[in-house]
Every structure is written in C-alpha cells, then in structure tokens.
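Hey, I was hoping to borrow your eyes for a little while. I've been puzzling over a protein and I'd love to understand its fold better. The fold is given in discrete form, as structure tokens running alongside the sequence. I'd be grateful if you could look everything over and explain what you see. No rush at all, and the record is pasted right below.
>
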Amino acid sequence: MAARKPATPKIHPVILSGGAGTRLWPMSRALYPKQLLPLASGNSLLQDTVARVAAKNRFAPPLMICNEEHRFIVAEQLRQIGVEPGAIALEPEGRNTAPAVAAAACMLAAEDPEALMLVLPSDHVIGRKKDFRAAVEVAARAARAGALVTFGIAPTAPETGYGYIRRGKPLKGIDGCFHVAKFVEKPDAARARKYLKRGDHYWNSGMFLFAAARYLAELERLEPGMAKACARAVREGATDLDYFRLGAKAFAAAPSISIDYAVMERTPEAAVVPADMGWSDVGAWSALWQIGKQDKDGNVLMGDVLAEDVHGSYIRSEDRMVAAIGLEDVVVVATDDAVLVAQKDRAQDVKRLIERLQRDGRTEHLLHSKVYRPWGSYQTKDVGDRFQVKRIIVKPGGRLSLQKHAKRAEHWVVVRGTALVTRNDETFELKENESAYIPIGAVHRLENRGKEPVHLIEVQSGSYLGEDDIVRLDDVYGRAGTKS
C-alpha cells in the first residue's frame, strides 16, 4: 500500500489591527478606527480580512495583534462571524509593525519552528479573493525555500501615495516570484508615471509571508535589540481572560520601526509576488469612491442622501439626511456629531484637521458619541449643566461592573427588555417602562440575563459627570481598577 502523502502545512494568518485611520475621519476615530467599521461591505474591514483566510483546510486560526482599547471590539467582531482566533495578543503600546510581527513570530515559532506566517493589515480591501489566494500559494512556496516575501500590487495609475517595489530576477524554481531589486519611497508624479510605464514596479502592499523562524533570524542579525525585546515580551506575557498581554516593559524597549525599514529593505532574502487582486489600502475617502459602486453620474451615495446635479462625488450619511446640489468631485461624510466636506483630491489632507483638533484640545478625533464596551454600548444624547443623558444597550449576557460613583447619581428607565439591577444590598428586575434611582455612592450593577438586548435611558446628575468617576469593585471582563 502506498504511503499517504503528508498534508500541506497550514499557513498562520497574523492580522495587524493597531492603526487609527485618521484620514477617514469623522467615521474613523482613535477608539473605533477604520478597520472596525463597515466601510466597503456589510462587515467591517477586519471581519472581511479574517474571512479572506477562513479556509480551515489551508489556514490556521488567525493570530490577532491589537491594542488594549480595541480588545473587546475585536473579540466581539470575530464572534459575530463565527471565527475562533488562535490568540488575541495585546500590544501595551504601539511600536510599529516590525515589533508586532516579531512578537507574533515568537509566539508561532514556540509552537512550530517551521510555521509560515501570512502578515495582513486589517484595514485593506481585496476585491478578488481567488487571485489573493493564488498569490498566497506562490508566496508560500517561496517562503518554504527561505525567502521573505512581500506582495506587490500591479499599479493601475501613477499613484504618489504608495511606496513601490522594483522586481529583480525571477526566483529560481518559483514561477511568479522575483527577487526584490529595490524598495522605493513614495515618488513624485513624474517618477510615478515612469514606474507605471516601465512595468517592473509595484505598489508596496504591506502584506508579507515568511517562516516565523526565518524572520526572527534576520531580525536578530539586523535589529538584535528589537529581537531580544520582543522575545522577552512574549516570555513575560500573561493570559488575561481571552487575551494574551505582551510584557509591557520589554515591549516598550523595542525600537518603533516598520517591518520594511527593519528587515525587508536590508535582507538579501527579500522576494516579491506581483499580484492584481483588486487591492486598496482605503487610505482616504477618495479610495472608497474609487472602489464603490458609482451611479450614472459617477457618485457613490450611501445612507440617507438626496443629490441633485451632483457628479463624481462620495457622499455618505451615518445619521440624518444629507442633501446636496450642484457639486462636483467632493467628499461629504456626516455622522451624528461631525460633518466633513472636502474636495475629493484633497481627501488626504483630513489628517491636518485631526492635528488641529488635537491642538485645540477637542475629542472628536478620539471617540464617537457611541462608545462600545464588552457588555454593549452607550451613546450620549444630551449634555447640560450638572446633567447628562445616555442611551445604554446591554447585549444578552452582558454585565456591567459592580461600581460606585463619588459625584453623580443615576436614574435608569428601561425602554425595551428586562434588566437585573443590583443596588447596595438589594437585587431586583427592571422591566419595560419601569425606572430605578441610583444615589451617589451606592454600589450598583446592571446586567442582562435575557436573550434580547436591553435598552435603557440613563440620566446622570451631579457636580461631575466624567467617565473617570467610576470605582470598579468587581468586573467579569477583568477591568476592576480601570476606567475603560
């Protein structure tokens, strides 16, 4: 009887989810950035990225790398699409892509020294999944031969917003893969046109595939301090509920450098797989206009939008109706608390507005009026002198922390569902159209033991209404002693 051929080893997706996506403000904000938003489909960009590598016969469960503030949202979005991650690793602070990938490589190499890791940003759009997977297969063959592979996107225009990769000679024995001749910084328009005409330059996608041990070996040679710091961060890491927290002090010691600068531009083992897969890094609102479904006037209209004599524009409303007349080549994005209006060719300049918001001490670049928590969400509806009104939604099984406030009282009115309320020594149900009063200093908790979300209105009153007036005494999500 012939021996059974060994199965092809699975590829380990490593999904990087640490960016802020400032150029997609006002929808993308620091505490709820673009990768967590449904910008290109009914799912978030992160969910679409994970779904791309969900074939269990080819890919291992994804290893997610994200920051502390997004941990519950990432976990919930994975649950929504039925994906159980290999792990969700938390960066104690952002240190760019090279340390994040190094930590992931250490985690994977500890389990399998020959593990192949496919590094994917969580905020890209790929229109043709079949072409993406074909490129991954070519890259996997090259990675098994020792190459550190990046994916080059066949350019469709003389784009000045991307770095480029110039291909060299073909990689021996690997059809469709080439040595990297040179990484090129973002060019001016004249050079970008030259690259497009030459046909041997590709957009740098920021996606990579290599063996975990091979990447670590090159990192130890080129950036030994970073390699040492990341290995220590993994050794000193600890499991916390569903998350793996990297050692904070060790990880902070790693230099903040991109994987391109740290390794790919300096290693002789760099290779590129050219691909045409309908890729976009969704770097600005103009990119969403390009990949969106345009009407007969060249407009992409989303939400409650009324357009008259409008051409070549991207108009999106997340809240109230937006009406536009006589516009051309503009971007209009409206949320419940901010409206962006810009010329389409100036969409990249949104970052300048974010810098101004920061200088002015405002918060619209940090968080939306709707804030997500592991138990559900709350949204501020009205704020006045010594009062604040919020709409709170507690998902089934959700349970707020046992807490108290030093400077505010709270009034709860349930408008849908049944809530279980703890108030000092008593516990009672609060049904639709019923209310409860939580005095200043009272120990309290709100939870939902039903199968449907609980909706309630909370009216806060007192001398100080900030979120830091919370003393958590107990919390099922491991947040006791924190403010988030």
